[in-house]
Amino acid sequence: xxxxxxxxxxxxxxxxxxxxxxxxxxxxxxxxxxxxRVAAELAAAVAAxxxxxxxxxxxxxxxxxxGAMGGVDRVRxxxxxxxxxxxxxxxxxxxxxxxxxxxxxxxxxxxxxxAEPFEQRAAMAHLAAGRVVIFAAGTGCPFFSTDTAxxxxxxxxxxxxxxxxxxxxxxxxxxxxxxxxxxxxxxxxYEQVVRDSLRVMDITATSIAMDHQLPIVVFDMTQPGxxxxxxxxxxxxxxxxxxAGSAEVR
Length: 250
Prior knowledge:
Blueprint (H helix, E strand, L loop, with lengths): L11 E6 L1 H5 L8 H16 L3 E6 L7 H6 L4 H25 L4 E5 L8 E2 L2 H9 L3 E5 L9 H11 L4 E6 L4 E2 L11 E2 L1 E3 H6 L7 H9 L4 E5 L5 H6 L6 E4 L9
Parallel strand pairs: 1-2, 1-6, 2-5, 3-4, 3-5, 6-10, 9-11
Antiparallel strand pairs: 7-8, 10-11
Helix pairs in contact: 2-4, 6-8
């Protein structure tokens, strides 16, 4: 593993959250306590001067790949999954506004009575105005994950870092649930993630980040306060970046 680490703090971030995270211990739908806690942490980040974009998955409601395994047409199933991310985005926006922080939901599929269509300059104007922008409906295309959507939106809004808030505390060399001797990487290169097929984000998302030298931090979002710790530059989770000797991260 290469010896190098992240440079922080960050001015503009894209936070990827899984739908399962919002479900808490319920396993399906939303846990209001989780929504409120995450919204409070996002609101605090904006109050501290960070511009915040968010991509939320839809796995707590419907996942297109799972639907396809059950006989649903894959394209139709992926569209259903995109709609699930819109539901999650609206729920998060509502929680943010209850926390006193304006939010906008922007979607890759047009549904103007529900949310704004995604447009890069409009999104950046919202961020500059202190609004949290929630990007929903993935990329708008089937066969692409919300991880890919997160990497794409992060590049489009010129984010300093892509944060992946999960239920685990970083990236391991093997499944820590199945292997007691699994080792967590504090830092790892994009190339090793792709080469070893490590479960950080899907390969398309990692490739987008690598092509644009966009750092990724994978951390445990279930622990209150961890988002603030990441934004302060504390070495928690796993930092994914370029190999030593390549272009520096921004």
